[in-house]
Amino acid sequence: MQFHFKLFGLFCGLVSVFFANLLIGATAIDLSTIVAALFAFDADIYDHYIVVYQRLPRALIAVYMGSMMAVGGHVMQTLTRNPLASPASLGINAGATLSVIICAFLFQLDQQALGIAALIGAALGFLSCLFIARATGGDQHPSGLSFILSGTLTSMLFIGIAHTLLLSDPVKREDYLDWVMGNINHVYIERLDSVWWVGLGAGIILLILARPLTLLALGREKAASAGVPIHIVTWTALTAVMVGAGSAVAICGPIGFVGLVVPHMIRPFFGIHLWAALPASAMAGGSVILIADIISRTVFTPYILHTGIMMDLVGGLCFAIIVRKYYLKQGRQQLS
Amino acid sequence: MRLEKSLDQYYVLQIAGTVSIRLSYLITFLILSVIMIGGSLLSLQIGEITLSGRDIWQMISGQHDLSDSQVFALETRLPRIILGFLCGGAVAMSGAILQSLVRNPLADPGLFGFSQGSMVVIMLLIVWIPDFPGYLLPAAALLGGCLVALFILWFSGGRQGNMLALLLIGIATETCLSSINAVLILYAPDHLSYAISRWMAGSLFGADWQAILYFLPWMGASLFLALWLGPKLRIYELGEELAMALGESVPTSRRLILLSAVLMSSAAVTAIGPLMFLGIIGPNLARFLTAANGRAFLVLSAMIGGILVIGADMLTRSLSADIALPVGLSLILIGVPIFILVCRLRHLRYDG
Asked: Strand, helix or coil at B20?
């Protein structure tokens, strides 16, 4: 029962940030115009045009991206039992990025095929992260730390290769450079239109699996003795996360930070039960990206900073803080 | 100099008093040297103009009436090969040092953010001071790498921080710095952004005797430091607590070891750009070939790293001129399949 109020609060927060995102921009548009633009659209009024064709698409993409990444991060942190896991730090984002770049530059595929390429790439990125962890004999580590190392390594490698491939065609490079850096742009709305159902499906699957996943968080043996089919649940959940995150990357490029940090913000309020925590993560993730979008559009005027770049910078700082919290204190205790 | 059987039943070559080398390491080293020399000679032949074996023989036997294509090969290909070998060796040795230090086979100068730190400083110099003297660039890169190392040490709690935290804070620093790189790539003018990306992909096109001359002092200094610290790394491989118990002054020597790793990686980054993944592949191959540790491990890793870069350069030049494959990419094309193969073989060796 108590979760309902918190979830409702988060929902109100999301809605208000959403409208704030529509309000704030190069020209401030007041609330009544926005409501009028949304419900009684008049193509002749310039402000209506801006709201419906520029700001609304941006906001929708931001919400989709944020919720997919946050949910993915939450599930990944539950499964690996590591506070540093997220779609970005396990190679999923980088895999999707590289796959899209390879298909666009070497095979000249169209937009629809690139979406599928992103999904496959997300899976390949995660699998190569698993492979490197296993190949170097690190997968025995109880807290899944070697997955983080191999995931970071895979990401660096894939992003590096993607940048190298970009060099092969200077004209196309201009088009894709923005996307590779993680950019929320209203022209990407067609892509959202063609993949939104993927994310919705992934979210529903994860919600159905919420109970067994929560049991898995207690430990594999305990979950198994409670009757959870561990392998099926783990791999279904992983697939859902990869597909969800991959579809988000297909829209606006890799954006980190959210998947890493939002679960840490949600957990103190919602505990480990994923049934309530996953929707909460989704809403909080959406809000965080909406706020980041506002900041990146307004703080550095007349320049517009890419949301992905800003999130990388903040994400690195938060990564350091989480490391300090989870790993350094333990280290001190061991030494003293 | 004589051959002996040591206490642990390995054959050991005794040289002048206390210095001794295990025979298996020496043989591996000799085999790698043969591969290196053979690869270099082959690499001299391959390219836009193909030379025959006799041309190469004339070149090394020191004849004076060389044809144009032979002079061309001496002036452009030989520096590339030498610089490639040295840089590859430096990156691989830097990876080996870090892996021994943190006792994790996935440590790498890129993962620690050292290469990123060097790159950010060099890029800022390229963007702001276009006519910065070239011979000072390694110093600037070193400064960037050292700043990162200092930050990591400070943030992971100075003397008390453990090695794992060092690595994780390194990852965090790397993420932050790469976002700064991204800003530079995205907002610099088009030609500059293209040039920066090219350099980040790794390139040996700028290699000439002058570049080697700039690179050599840094390489020499770091090699000296690394070989001096080599025996300490054997102690670190036992773990930090045990190293302390064995009388190693961990805070001091850890800083020195990090410094030597930074020196190597930053010199290589300045010369041909960050070589992705080489810091992982080189040491892991060395570990697969022998059970070396300490100095022998460092030297063998460096040899393997250098040979891989020579191979990558050969691949780059054997393709037609239309496909300007950066060395970094051909290095991955060569190195990653070998890495995967070795990992599978190692699994078989231990499981079967």
From this structure: strand
Phi, psi dihedrals of residue B202, rounded to the nearest 5°: 85, 120
Question: Can you tell me the mean pLDDT for B48-59?
Answer: 74
How far apart CA B94 and CA B111 sit, in angstroms, is: 12
Please give the mean pLDDT across all residues of chain B: 82
Which residues in chain B have Cβ-Cβ distances shorter than 8 Å to A138?
A: 104-106
CB A79 within 8 A of CB A229: no
pLDDT of A142 above 70? no
Mean pLDDT of A76-104: 89
Q: Which residue has the tokens 């040092």?
A: B97
Asked if the Cβ–Cβ distance from B194 to A331 is below 8 Å, we say no
In contact, A62 and A189? CB cutoff 8 Å: no
Q: Compute the half-sphere exposure of residue B311: CA atoms within 13 Å on the CB side of its CA.
A: 17
Contact between B49 and B72 (Cβ < 8 Å) = yes
Task: Give ipTM to 2 decimals.
Answer: 0.82
DSSP states of A244-267: HHHHHHHHH----SHHHHHHHHHH
Among A132, A164, A319, whose Cβ lies nearest the Cβ of B171?
Answer: A319
Q: Rounded to the nearest 5°, which phi and psi values hold at B20?
A: -145, 150
Whether the CB of B171 is below 8 Å from some CB of chain A: the reply is yes
**B181 in contact with chain A, both atoms CB, cutoff 8 A:** no
Angle between helices A274-298 and A210-217 (to 10 degrees): 90
Residue A335 predicted with pLDDT over 70 = no
CA distance B115 to B141: 9
CB nearest A332 (choices: B160, B175, B193): B160
Kindly report, residue by residue over A62-73, the tens digit of the pLDDT. Answer: 999 999 999 999
Beta-carbon contacts of B307 under 8 Å, excluding residues fewer than 6 positions away, are: B32, B35, B36, B39, B85, B88
Please report which confidence band the pLDDT of residue A1 belongs to, taking 50, 70 and 90 as the band edges.
low
Whole-angstrom Cα distance, residue B143 to residue B138? Answer: 9
Q: Among B114, B163, B168, pick the best mutation site for testing chain A contact (most A Cβ within 10 A).
A: B168
